[in-house]
Please model this.
Amino acid sequence: MNDFNYSNIFETKGIEYIAIITFFLILIPFWIILNKQKSISKKIKKVLGILSFDILKIPQGVFHNNNHTWAFLEKNGDASVGLDDFLLHTTGEVKLRTLKIPGETINKGDLITEIIKGDKLLSVASPISGVVIKTNVQLIESPELLNQDPYGKGWIFKIKPSKWKEESRYFYLSDEASRWSKMEIQRFKDFLAQIGQKYSDEPSLAILQDGGELIDNTLSELPDVVWQDFQKSFLNENKFNNNDPVYCVLS
Model:
């Protein structure tokens, strides 16, 4: 018992322990605030990966519109209409809310469907004018067909076009569609870099502009505010000449 010595740590190193505890009390709230500010940017970093032009389906004979819809003129004169592969690779698996029914007359630029993923939404305008002949009811029970076969079983509407020759002349077809799709992938990378700057105080995600790749379902990991920006940048743009009908602004 005589060899036992008792030491009070707060008498020997009390000031050091108090300093450490105080440091962590200050650090934890700061860490929480900092992580909230950077949450969007961290999610954007998760999209670095494998989405590239090489995996996009761009079938021959399909007309691509600049709002990432497509139209294909069938032998009977009706046109199938759907969403292009680029758009579906960015959103991942989604559900649709069709807003037109057979018998309705539509104009190019009219809102025809909404892409829904949880509480996030994108509005899609019609690439052509005409009368709706049929909607793809199979997508209600099997929405995965939209991603699995976007230009086949994943069609959304059959439309009897009223201005096909006039409206299709500004669509992208074949090699032109391929070149445009490559440009859209690069533009999407630039878009993500800008989003990183807009919603975070972190430095710009420059790797996206330096050839960094993307993974599938990019938007699925990102919040609603990014979907809204994507809507404005990729689905509401009008690249047609002034003589063409203008897309309605969809919010």
